[in-house]
Amino acid sequence: MVKTVPLKKTFLSPKVLTGLAAFGLALCLQSNFAYAAAGDRSAGSHYPPGNDTIHSIQISKSLSSKKHKIRLYPDARQQVLFFSANGENGKVYQLFLFDMDGRLVSQTQIRNRETTVLTNISEGNFLFEVFTDDERIENGQLLVR
Questions:
Q1: Angle at 34 between CA 98 and CA 137, to 5 degrees
Q2: What are phi and psi of 104, to 5 degrees?
Q3: What average pLDDT does the chain have?
Q4: How far from the centroid of its chain's Cα atoms is residue 23's Cα?
């Protein structure tokens, strides 16, 4: 026999809900970075044994240009990375992707209002820089796990 019990209605202000959501997001991000940094592939972790597929791509920008709109974003399945630029007409934008040892892993260039796809990105932490006319306009970090 199943007995239903009514739930208590509680009220949380939007300010409290926002704080709780931010705290939960910070905890999730902290634990995800800890798994990636430790290379933990145990059965209880986010990495099932024997499964080497990419689960997510996270991008954090350190420097952003106000004159040029650069977008780095993963697809819905988190398998590829899109790179697009919107700025001044005739500009060429170059994306450089480095591993944590400073080795160049990938390089691509696009023109204004174009988008390209970066595929076959291996797991790990990367640094990226975007240049136009020998001027760094954006940089940041990329985490692929």
A1: 30
A2: -70, 120
A3: 75
A4: 19
Q: What is the pLDDT of residues 39-60, one digit of tens each?
A: 443 333 333 334 456 679 999 9
Distance CA 81, CA 92 (A): 19
CA separation for the pair 96, 85 (Å, rounded): 14
Structural domains for the chain: 11-49 (no CATH), 57-144 (2.60.40.3080)
Residues 117-130 pLDDT 10s: 999 889 999 999 99
Q: Which two tokens stand for residue 4?
A: 């239903």
Candidate from 43-47, 89-93, 112-116, 139-143 with smallest mean pLDDT: 43-47
Q: What is the pTM assigned to this prediction?
A: 0.62
Candidates 50, 129, 122; CA nearest to 83 is 129
